[in-house]
């Protein structure tokens, strides 16, 4: 069975070897038909602590690394949206 791959934004990189990735998806409301955004946060393994807050990354499902981490960061897709503070 293929591993799931999701794309999201890093919202926290405070943990050691861990990043929190916010993944948003758009779904159609079953009754009203309006397109609404649904989001979920995933804890992903970042071995080298290379990914920073604000970056868009791709995460892949993996075997459990810890109690909450079952995803690992595969690659960086885009840079930080907010300008860097000087």
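Sequence proposed for the structure above (86 residues):
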């Amino acid at each position: 069975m293929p591993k799931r791959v999701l794309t999201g934004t890093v919202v926290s990189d405070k943990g050691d070897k861990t990043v929190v990735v916010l993944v948003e998806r758009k779904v159609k409301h079953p009754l009203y038909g309006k397109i609404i955004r649904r989001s979920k946060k995933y804890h992903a393994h970042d071995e080298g602590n290379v990914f920073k807050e604000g970056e868009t990354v791709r995460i892949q499902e993996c075997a459990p690394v810890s109690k909450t981490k079952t995803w690992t960061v595969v690659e960086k897709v885009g840079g930080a949206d907010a300008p860097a503070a000087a």
